[in-house]
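Section 3.1: Structural characterization of target chains.
Under the original work plan, the team committed to producing a structural model for every single-chain target entering the pipeline before any wet-lab resources were allocated. The record below documents one such target. The sequence was received from the expression subgroup and is listed exactly as submitted; it comprises 163 residues.
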Amino acid sequence: METRIERIKKQLHSASYKLTPQREATVRVLLENEEDHLSAEDVYLLVKEKSPEIGLATVYRTLELLTELKIVDKINFGDGVSRYDLRQEGAAHFHHHLVCIECGAVSEIQEDLLEDVEAVVEKRWNFKIKDHRLTFHGICHRCQDKDKDEEPNKQNKIKQSFE
């Protein structure tokens, strides 16, 4: 984690910003919860546990700065809540997401699946792509398995109601 913080510190310095204690606390929370797609409020509550003096506005400003510098990506899964996701180091593009419409689970796809699509778009529409975001909405394997397990019970209930 320390080496990643050091690299983020260098990114900030190259853009004429400092890694203040408040910014570092925010970055540490994002690193510690990298799998979780935290909202600004979630980040604030976790930062507050470690640094009670930090205010919500400071966390918001830090998240916006980190987004601007492409250290984090601001994402929305269609529920009206902005979430923050650390960008993979060296990644040319934002990673993709799978969102379960039943349980709300979010999974990530790290590989870039759209290179061919980008080439077609750039050539056909003369459009220089800088980034892309792709979110698939569907039903995760856990919910599918749960539905399979519940299916025999549903069939029995329907059968009993006709008897």
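The two ends are 63 Å apart (CA to CA).
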